Automatic annotation (TrEMBL):
GO terms for biological process: axon guidance; positive regulation of cell migration; semaphorin-plexin signaling pathway. Keywords: Developmental protein, Differentiation, Disulfide bond, Glycoprotein, Membrane, Neurogenesis, Signal, Transmembrane, Transmembrane helix. SMART domains: PSI, Sema. The keyword Membrane applies. It is found in: Membrane. Belongs to the semaphorin family. InterPro entries: Plexin_repeat, PSI, Semap_dom, Semap_dom_sf, Semaphorin, WD40/YVTN_repeat-like_dom_sf. GO terms for cellular component: plasma membrane. Pfam families: PSI (PF01437), Sema (PF01403). This is Semaphorin-1A. One of its GO terms (molecular function) is chemorepellent activity. Its main location: membrane.
Amino acid sequence: MTGRDSVLWLLAMCSLGTAAWRGNTQPKLITLLGSDNNVHRFTGNDTHPDHFRLIVQDEQNLLVGGRNLVHNLTLADLTEIQKLAWVSPDNDRTMCSMKGRDFEQCQNYIRVLTKISTGRFLICGTNAYKPVCREYASQPSGYLMEREWSGRGSCPYGPNVNSTAVFVDGELYSGTYADFAGFDPLIFREPLRTAQFDSNTFNHPIDFVNSFAHGDYVYFFFREGAVECTNCGNTIYSRVARVCKSDKESTSNVIEGRYGAESAEIVYAVFNALNNGSAVCAFRLQDISKAFDGPFAGATEKVPDPRPGKCVNDSRAMPSVTRNFIQKHPRMEQSVDSFFGRPIVTQVTSNYRFTQIAVDPQVKTPGGKAYDVLFIGTDNGKVIKAVNAESADNPKKVNTVVIEEIQVFPPAVAITSLKIVRHESLTKPRLIVVSNSEIQSIKLHRCDSNILVNNSCSGCVGLQDPHCAWDKQAQKCVTKNSATRWNGENSFYQSIATGLHGSCPI
Ligand SMILES: *[C@@H]1O[C@H](CO)[C@@H](O)[C@H](O)[C@H]1NC(C)=O
Ligand SMILES: *[C@@H]1O[C@H](CO)[C@@H](O)[C@H](O)[C@H]1NC(C)=O
Ligand SMILES: *[C@@H]1O[C@H](CO)[C@@H](O)[C@H](O)[C@H]1NC(C)=O
Ligand SMILES: *[C@@H]1O[C@H](CO)[C@@H](O)[C@H](O)[C@H]1NC(C)=O
Ligand SMILES: *[C@@H]1O[C@H](CO)[C@@H](O)[C@H](O)[C@H]1NC(C)=O
Ligand SMILES: *[C@@H]1O[C@H](CO)[C@@H](O)[C@H](O)[C@H]1NC(C)=O
């Protein structure tokens, strides 16, 4: 990318600190979802894998990108009410198989799906290894395709590539691969892209994890094959890239919370070590920004003005001295350390990995303290629900509580997306869990499970689940809803920090 669209990189460190290389995923509660757990399912095509990846909430509907289709489901129970069919033309499919891809790969998997405005959607599909983007208008009679253009750079070629995209201020920013063979990773915003086959930019292989907009910038988190990090020790690392966006406006995936006496804007990310081990770390946006404002790796010359990476107006062409400097030194010298100083959850066996994370931010508990509740998807069908029980008291400490481990899919099935959805049409928010061939909607908590708490005050408080509290009057473990507000310590007992409450007999 040139001009104001230069990309800068830095290393994000998820350091295990002095703690031994051991995991902390022992759950308090193991849940096998039965029909009594109020689960809704959508299974798509029962004879062929759908490779579901994308879920987008549109008011009281859920749009899901699958195989040759965009499904329009109700949020309430995942009933399909409409679908948009988009099958690759025969000649594209023929070309795809002539180039050696199999029947499954030569389908159209929807990988970018975003609402442009009411009733208008931008959709990109792999289109049998020849990605295409389209703009559709939703009309009473069906969907009207209004525009079509090449999706190269915006959308991956095949169903198994992990890519990311974010739509801000009318523009699509994506992190994906731009070639048939999967050798050309890039960050792209039409018509600009990162340099091709430049080892200064990427080290193979790249796994794009997440992207979000904040302030002047769009950020990308991704994993890289080899990273220069000689003294990293017990640290898992990842990269963050940053590009300027045109307008300062929207923010997504960023949590504004209170951690001890501090207010901070943070993002949570899943980290994977090369061979074994996964972790979840949080990063403060302010720390990421600071590292991007710091020294450039390997630069001995004076940093030019305007400073590389600073967003300047479109109209102002970037001087060649600045552009050359960025080409030589795209990486930042300083890395960014995780916010709490340690990962919040770690998994060290080679048995499984974390794949996805969704956060219910700042869940208020009786007494007023608020906690970020983490839902972590794994590649063995599980969702792990966890909380940093220290976070409301001290932003520099971690006390991991793994509240619950939910076996959502069979152990051979990886979770490919996770999302918390809320809407007035739902009595409570729900967690949407996605795998290649199935989507489930489950409750965020199981406060009322008899097995877990045996209907006891100490069992309920002992779960340390910010979604639950012991209702003194009703003598039940309950969750907050519009009817039951937490009215302070007198009616509801909870203590996330300790799991003990003075008024609950042990
Ligand atoms: C499932 O996929 C196959 C192969 O693409 C297709 O022929 C069939 O119509 C699909 N079934 C449904 C219910 O969409
Ligand atoms: C999904 O269905 C709802 C209800 O029919 C409709 O209002 C909405 O526009 C649909 N969205 C898409 C993308 O088709
Ligand atoms: C840059 O943009 C800002 C806000 O749009 C404007 O006020 C300013 O005059 C512009 N500067 C230049 C050098 O164009
Ligand atoms: C995981 O990797 C670490 C660091 O390479 C190593 O010390 C540890 O023994 C490995 N653990 C397992 C269970 O393989
Ligand atoms: C893509 O993501 C899945 C799940 O997160 C992971 O298992 C897989 O290894 C990733 N693929 C690549 C090519 O990195
Ligand atoms: C709950 O009660 C059952 C049967 O009374 C008992 O077997 C189990 O250990 C109890 N669980 C807890 C967590 O106390």
